[in-house]
Design a protein that fits this description.
Helices cover about 60% and strands about 0% of the residues. It is an all-alpha fold.
């Protein structure tokens, strides 16, 4: 018996009847020989961690654009927090933790520079629109690995696609990630907003803190416990009073942080920057060589969108400066 086979036997013996067993995966688009050590979902997790798009998340905005402080979240630290919360819930419900982790780590691979501000601009510019969850799937199916993609299992790709809105994921593990994503960003965005002087903990309405708690760790603990206690392994949900308080906290964050002119004052510069890059890269000869095959197959707009979506904040700024700011004469 291989290590993988032993793991799959333990999954069958230990996990909930609702769990997605790795031996029952719907498979990959391109069939591969099984690994002796890792299950298919473990291999997916490893492929995501080792891909270039995952590494670039460390220089992509979460809420505050290119923050200078060392302790503000980036898209990478957000991803890791989602993974931790989702894995805890999956373990509590005896679901497949490996599948949950793989979906968590891959859910934001297609996110743009400058967070949702960058996403909104690309959505206006790209024919057919732009949604980061669809781009994340495109990254793992098409863009990574020199155009070959990562050849992930269907369950992982479904969870990535469904992590934000629309139809829920087909697996309970994917549905966990959708909820864990929201738990993570609401709570760490409060932490960053307090650090940035945008709000204070005491400004959160008492009707919310009396249910969820008045510290980040307490709130997360309350939410995770509620999901584990309320869910049946198939339906992933919170208790009614906790969900109501969490929804109120979500709307509070929109008013105090996500739409706060002080917190978002730099975002007004993003549309001009992204539009400048978009028009520049559409001009003949400006698109990098490795993106020109996509331009030939799917059109220049698709290739330019893929290239900009993959940029880090700082690379986008550097390219904008290179094409927009005159350099000193150096003979």
């Amino acid at each position: 018996m291989t290590v993988r086979e032993r793991t799959q036997m333990l999954e069958e013996q230990i996990l909930s009847p609702y769990a997605t067993l790795s031996k029952n995966t719907l498979g990959r688009d391109v069939p591969e020989q099984e690994c002796d050590v890792r299950t298919p979902f473990q291999r997916d997790r490893d492929r995501i961690i080792h891909c270039k798009s995952f590494r670039r998340l460390k220089h992509k905005t979460q809420v505050f654009l290119s923050p200078e402080g060392d302790h503000y979240r980036t898209r990478l630290t957000h991803t890791l927090e989602v993974s931790q919360i989702a894995r805890t819930i999956a373990r509590g419900l005896m679901l497949n933790e490996d599948l949950t982790e793989a979906i968590s780590l891959g859910h934001d691979l297609g996110h743009t520079p400058f967070g949702h501000a960058g996403e909104r601009v690309l959505n206006e510019l790209c024919p057919g629109g732009f949604r980061h969850f669809e781009q994340s799937v495109r990254v793992v199916e098409k863009l990574e690995n020199n155009g070959r993609g990562l050849n992930l299992t269907k369950e992982v790709r479904d969870g990535i696609l469904c992590h934000t809105s629309g139809e829920p994921a087909k697996t309970p593990e994917g549905r966990i990630v959708r909820l864990a994503d929201r738990i993570a960003y609401i709570n760490h965005d409060i932490d960053d907003a307090i650090r940035g002087g945008v709000m204070t903990e005491s400004e959160i309405p008492q009707g919310i803190t009396s249910v969820l708690g008045n510290r980040r760790s307490v709130r997360i603990d309350t939410l995770v416990h509620s999901v584990i206690r309320t869910s049946d392994g198939n339906t992933i949900a919170m208790a009614g009073d906790v969900k109501e308080a969490f929804d109120r906290l979500y709307h509070f964050m929109f008013e105090y942080v996500y739409l706060n002119p002080y917190a978002k004052r730099e975002e007004k510069k993003v549309p001009f920057l992204i539009r400048t890059l978009y028009e520049y890269l559409k001009m003949p000869g400006h698109l990098p060589e490795d993106m020109r095959q996509i331009a030939g197959e799917e059109g220049i707009d698709r290739a330019v969108t893929d290239y900009i979506a993959g940029m880090t904040d700082r690379y986008a700024v550097e390219l904008f400066q290179e094409i927009s700011v005159p350099r000193s004469w150096n003979h």
